[in-house]
Amino acid sequence: MIFGHVNAEYEATIRLSVYGMDGQIHELSSIIDTGFDGWLSLPASLINTLGLQWNGRGRATLGDGSECLFNVYEATVIWGEETITIQIDEAESEPLVGMLLMSGYRLIVEVRENGLVQLEKL
User: Fold this and answer.
1) How many domains, the chain?
2) CB neighbours (10 Å) of residue 23?
3) Which domain does 116 fall in, by range?
4) Per-residue pLDDT in tens (0 to 9) along the chain, 122 residues
5) Which helix (H) or strand (E) holds 45?
6) What pTM was estimated for this model as a whole?
């Protein structure tokens, strides 16, 4: 199981462990975004710190109907009891956990400040 909490801005957050290319594990706080259909997004500064390998370009349609292009990288993360390799979308925002990363899990959120966030494997 993966646990987190609801922050003061009422965002469901979890801690995530991401491997840098140097093999070091970097802990980061990430926001669960059920409107994001990818795996994980990270800002360019963090991608550079981790030294992630560039994997290509992606295209997304935003909520307002506009399209954007972004860089896609590859990283290894610790997800629950597993270590998995996933795609990372570059986005200038807080780290966002998308629906693909949560696939196969039940998301439970106590929607209140400091409420429990729980991801349970199905």
Assistant:
1) 1
2) 7
3) 2-121
4) 999 999 999 999 999 999 999 999 999 999 999 999 999 999 999 999 999 999 999 887 777 888 889 999 999 999 999 999 999 999 999 999 999 999 999 999 999 999 999 999 99
5) helix 44-50
6) 0.91
Helix-strand-coil percent breakdown of the chain, rounded to 5? 10, 55, 35
Find tokens 């909490």 and name the residue. Answer: 5
Task: Give CA–CA dist 57/77, Å, rounded.
Answer: 21
Under DSSP, the state recorded for 39 is S
C-alpha triplet 17, 20, 21: angle, nearest 5°: 150
Domain of 107, CATH number, reads: 2.40.70.10
- Report phi then psi at 98, rounded to 5: -95, 175
